[in-house]
């Protein structure tokens, strides 16, 4: 609901750093709740796409390249303009598995060891774009390794299925 409240301007409108209102290729860029915005060392923003039918990395195809390129380019420009942090100093990635199933992209300071920014869970947006440009169904076919905590419901499902 938090995501939809942001997209529908019912919440956090004062926190919006940038918005591209296009329903297909647009997004809203907001500071992540984990970032107190008092310093740039742990800069952390999230771009939430307007399109509601993209749940995760698995749903992405070459059709979504204009959206992904917009998020990458406009997100970097907005952060440089607002916070003075150049794109070369950002880590821009998607989680798989995500914490919520509505496509969103994380922007963190390169030097910040953000939760979930490790290689097992984070997929760099530039790499995602390159992979989809080369193969439209890359993420439907590829095996994606991801970590799970023992207390997560998905882990329990894997246990019940005898996969762990």
UniProtKB/TrEMBL annotation:
Keyword Nucleus: yes
Sorted UniProt keywords: Hydrolase, Nucleus
Enzyme Commission number: 3.6.1.59
Gene3D superfamilies given in the database record: HIT-like
Enzyme class: hydrolase
Cross-referenced InterPro entries: DcpS/DCS2, Histidine_triad_CS, HIT-like_sf
GO MF annotation list: 5'-(N(7)-methyl 5'-triphosphoguanosine)-[mRNA] diphosphatase activity; RNA 7-methylguanosine cap binding
Cell compartments where the protein resides: Nucleus
One GO term describing the cellular component: P-body
Domain of life: Eukaryota
GO biological process, one term: deadenylation-dependent decapping of nuclear-transcribed mRNA
Catalysed reactions, semicolon-separated: a 5'-end (N(7)-methyl 5'-triphosphoguanosine)-ribonucleoside in mRNA + H2O = N(7)-methyl-GMP + a 5'-end diphospho-ribonucleoside in mRNA + 2 H(+)
Family, similarity comment: Belongs to the HIT family.
Protein name: m7GpppX diphosphatase
Organism, as annotated: Neopipo cinnamomea
Gene name, Swiss-Prot/TrEMBL: Dcps
């Amino acid at each position: 609901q938090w995501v939809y409240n942001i997209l529908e301007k019912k919440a956090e409108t004062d926190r919006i750093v940038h918005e591209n209102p296009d329903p297909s290729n647009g997004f809203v860029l907001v500071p992540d709740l984990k970032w107190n915005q008092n310093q740039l060392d742990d800069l952390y923003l999230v771009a939430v796409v307007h399109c509601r039918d993209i749940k995760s990395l698995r749903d992405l195809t070459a059709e979504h390249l204009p959206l992904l390129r917009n998020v990458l380019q406009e997100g970097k420009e907005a952060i440089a303009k607002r916070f003075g942090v150049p794109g070369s100093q950002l880590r821009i990635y998607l989680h798989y598995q995500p914490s919520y199933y509505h496509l969103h992209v994380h922007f963190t300071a390169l030097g910040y060891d953000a939760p979930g920014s490790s290689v097992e869970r984070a997929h760099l947006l530039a790499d995602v774009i390159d992979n989809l440009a080369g193969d439209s169904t890359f993420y439907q076919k590829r095996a994606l390794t991801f970590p799970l905590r023992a207390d997560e419901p998905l882990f329990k499902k894997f246990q019940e299925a005898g996969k762990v």
